[in-house]
Design brief:
The chain folds into 2 domains: 145 residues, Fructose-1,6-Bisphosphatase, Chain A, domain 1 (2-Layer Sandwich); 108 residues, D-Maltodextrin-Binding Protein, domain 2. The protein contains 10 helices and 17 strands. Helix 8 runs parallel beside helix 9. The chain starts with 19 loop residues before the first strand and ends in a 5-residue tail after the last helix.
């Protein structure tokens, strides 16, 4: 199997050489409580109950092979993401019409025209990050679609990749499905992503994953079982001039296609078995893909990000790369072959 097509459990080497584990305690706390600081690894919890592992448990990224602990990597990232979701929901309720949402404010660092609500949602996220840096003494580098690269406490050994609203056009037009996407990595490349979180505001579905510990949908562990053929394939970037040639290549090979309008949601939909694959005729960016690709791989899907291995795909906003995802190797080959040449 090529190096850039890595399923879950393939043993990706992370940038710091450290091992990540779920935080350890002899007695599991109730959901939403804090684990005792300084403890090690929860031994066997997910292994003993492989079909269901609490989402709060998965978020605890405590490094077991290196001391001292890193506050950025040991943070309760699921809790952080959930607080952000709740604050964003309040904004969406206040700005519930097209007229209120259809207001732009320049161009973000990612190159797209920025909605005022994009900035406001990003402000919510950065308030959490600033609190983590100031009160939690965490050092990390944030990479966000609107603000670009922002270092906290000189950057440290963690990278946080953020898309405040993936599916901004859907959001502006009040089409329900758009998402929050947040990933945490230990090096500035896709292979080092250790935690991924995608929240679908249309369905209320919460996807998350931790490297080596699996992927979860609404706290139920995902175990992808590939189907025969490509019955339903998600497509994104639906500009007709780019989409039509790709669809012509897929004619007779795919039964139906669906366009959600959020790349993160479509990739996560492969992880959940809703789509058999994801085809994308454009080049993608880290903010759209970083979290969802980990979720897909941890669920058992295959992810192709172009030439080379995952560690060669950078997280910087200026980096561009293809993305194709499928539940099976045969399906992945079919979708990659239809991908336009960049």
């Amino acid at each position: 199997m090529p190096a850039n097509q890595i399923p879950a459990g393939a043993g990706i080497t992370i940038g710091t050489g450290s091992g990540f584990g779920i935080a350890h305690t002899s007695k599991l706390p109730q959901r939403g409580s804090s684990l005792h600081p300084g403890v090690g690894r929860i031994s066997g919890t997910c292994a003993e109950n492989p079909t269901h592992c609490p989402a709060w448990l998965v978020s605890r990224m405590s490094r077991v092979n290196q001391l001292p602990a890193d506050p950025a990597l040991d943070a309760d990232w699921t809790g952080i993401c959930r607080r952000i979701v709740e604050e964003q929901k309040k904004l969406f309720e206040e700005y519930e019409t097209i007229e209120k949402r259809d207001n732009y404010e320049g161009v973000g660092e990612g190159g797209d025209h920025t909605l005022v609500l994009d900035r406001m949602c990003e402000d919510v996220i950065f308030a959490e990050l600033e609190d983590l840096a100031e009160n939690g003494a965490a050092a990390f580098t944030a990479i966000s679609e609107e603000r670009g690269t922002v270092e906290f406490n000189e950057g440290g050994n963690a990278w946080v990749v953020i898309d405040p609203i993936d599916g901004s056009l859907n959001f502006k037009r009040t089409i329900p499905q758009h998402s929050l996407s947040i990933a945490v990595a230990t090096a500035p490349n896709m292979g080092a992503v250790e935690f991924g979180y995608v929240y679908d505001f249309g369905t209320g579905d919460e996807f998350l994953a931790q490297s080596g510990e699996g992927a979860f949908l609404n706290e139920e562990k995902l175990n992808l079982e590939p189907r025969d053929g490509l019955e339903v394939v998600g497509v994104e970037g639906s500009e007709p001039a780019r989409l039509v040639p790709m669809l012509e290549q897929l004619a007779g090979k795919v039964y139906r296609v669906r366009c959600v309008g959020s790349l993160a949601i479509s990739i996560a939909s492969v992880a959940a078995g809703r789509f058999d694959g994801l085809a994308f005729p454009h080049l993608s960016r880290s903010v759209d893909v970083a979290a969802a690709q980990l979720i897909a791989r941890e669920a058992g899907a295959l992810v192709d990000l172009g030439e080379g291995g995952l560690s060669e795909v950078g997280l910087a906003l200026e980096d561009r790369f293809p993305v194709t995802v499928a539940a099976s190797g045969e399906g992945l080959d079919t979708l990659v072959a239809a991908r336009p040449v960049a």
